[in-house]
């Protein structure tokens, strides 16, 4: 999830800017480095560095259900991205699916702040057979919030996961968490406010989550019980197989992005295989996309086929600075070149994967990443990538970054 599903970055423009290479800048870099290193040991950490107007306060929090490796990977990614996305900002926060990182020139530890926040939710609606799901959600998560507020001294403070079966139809998974620096009263207040936002926005969705500055995660998920397992993801970043005979044949594959390690790939695919069986109950064909991987299965043979639909996008809410000049043209030219180069890598260790970093006009670095599923031939890979690039240009060339997954496995 990791480049662990990036959700949103907030750069506080009202807090002012610092000067590059100033004492504040030096202190901030030191703080982010310490946070990154500490995340291999803890799932939460805060510190303060510097004096007077050069003081920087910072923290990270990983969700209570991830291991040290995933936490470390997420925080390392977040500390790098927050400094790139919020150049010169004296205050910022970045949210990923598995972690958050925050820094500021003002002391925020112990304060209750619920803005800005960010949401993530399923596009699948809650089945009508679930009955009064909105009320069940409110009642159960309200109960979980009360219980979590009593866990301020636990190993993972305020983190609680509850699984309750309703009407013998579905399991409701409720996950709540606050940053450890909050007292129980403020934690409860934060969670209740977040729950109300979840109910108002997403009680008709199959699952949803919210991060706030207080570090809350709420994730209601009504799943079914069937599961698939791709153990091969601990060994490879791509694998396909076919099992069964005649009308009972199932074809399947997974693909992880070329820039993630085996641990992250395995974690992503395990999560995806569980979710795809929960979200697509009884479906004979399905595909699921995460930031770091995709999983697909079908009762028809799709390996070797070029299919560009359905696809999914993710993009930054930050616009491309006007100082970047003719960014749209630079993007089209550079990624067009990278696509041609990647099509020549069908026999590489990570087929068709290529990452390029090019500096333009001494103003910005353009990071281009492309990848196809190894089962495509070079011609189809090139076609798929070019079609995806055009969609990226049409939708997102005014954004600071964007990505697209297609059924062909393009990133």
TrEMBL record:
Keyword Repeat recorded: yes
Pfam families named among the record's database cross-references: Stress-antifung
InterPro entries: GNK2 (IPR002902), GNK2_sf (IPR038408)
Keywords: Repeat, Signal
CDD domains: Gnk2-like
Ranges for domain Gnk2-homologous: 6-108, 195-302, 308-411
Keyword Repeat: yes
Domain of life of the organism encoding this protein: Eukaryota
Alphabetized PANTHER family for the sequence: CYSTEINE-RICH REPEAT SECRETORY PROTEIN, CYSTEINE-RICH REPEAT SECRETORY PROTEIN 57-RELATED
Protein name: Gnk2-homologous domain-containing protein
Species in which this protein is naturally found: Brassica oleracea var. oleracea
